[in-house]
Amino acid sequence: MGTYNAIAGTIGAGKTTLCKTLSRYMIVGYEPKSPYLERFYKNPKKWSFHMQVWMMQYRYRQARELMSIPSVMAGDTKALQDRCWYEDRIFREMLYSQGNLSKVEYEMCMDMDNEYWEPDMTPKNIIYLRVSAETSIARVRERNRDAEIDVNDGYLRDLHRRYEELADFLDNTGDYFHIVDWNQPDMDKIYEILSEDQW
Predict the structure, then answer these.
(1) Residues noted as catalytic
(2) Residue 72 CB-half CA count within 13 A
């Protein structure tokens, strides 16, 4: 396990908003806006591979940077990543099943994943913000980001289903995975998890 923690959740779950709140107590590595994001949503078949490669590389470097901070290594400071590498796999599988990644591109992404990620880079703890598909869609529409104008409800529903499948799987693999109902955000639930010794 790594020395950092992570917030996970589908698009519109509230990850970045929560990370901004928690940044008062720990170092946060925020998810960046990819230079391919708007092009990806407009033409996923053309830009999915570029998007995946860019995000995997960035997330790998960010995780390594968080783990190498002296105060984090010493256990004096906690570090948090806004979305983790498990989630890149969700997007990769979905894009491949939708035909937006070719078999060659899909296999290249898998090879990169296997090359980059090592067991010691797995987040020490992951908090999964569980929301309904309807909540995800409503929040995406409400925030009205230019890059997300071309995101349709079907894409968000498919992504939500895949997140739930992964969450159900990880929930049975150990105590490091925490599911929090985030349809109605309640910081007390987060603080309760953060107060546990393993954090």
Answers:
(1) 82
(2) 22
Residue type, 76: D
CATH value at residue 125:
3.40.50.300
199 assigned to some structural domain: no
Taking the C-alpha atoms of residue 84 and residue 191, their distance in angstroms, rounded to an integer, is 20
The string of pLDDT tens digits covering residues 139-176 is 999 998 888 888 999 999 999 999 999 999 988 887 88
d(CA 149, CA 42): 9
CA angle in degrees (0–180, nearest 5) for 177-90-176: 10
CA dist., res. 33 & res. 25, Å (int) = 24
CA–CA dist 113, 170 (Å, integer): 18
CA-CA-CA-CA torsion sign (123, 127, 130, 136): negative
Q: Residue 173: give the domain boundaries.
A: 5-194
Task: Tell me, yes or no, if the pTM score tops 0.85.
Answer: yes
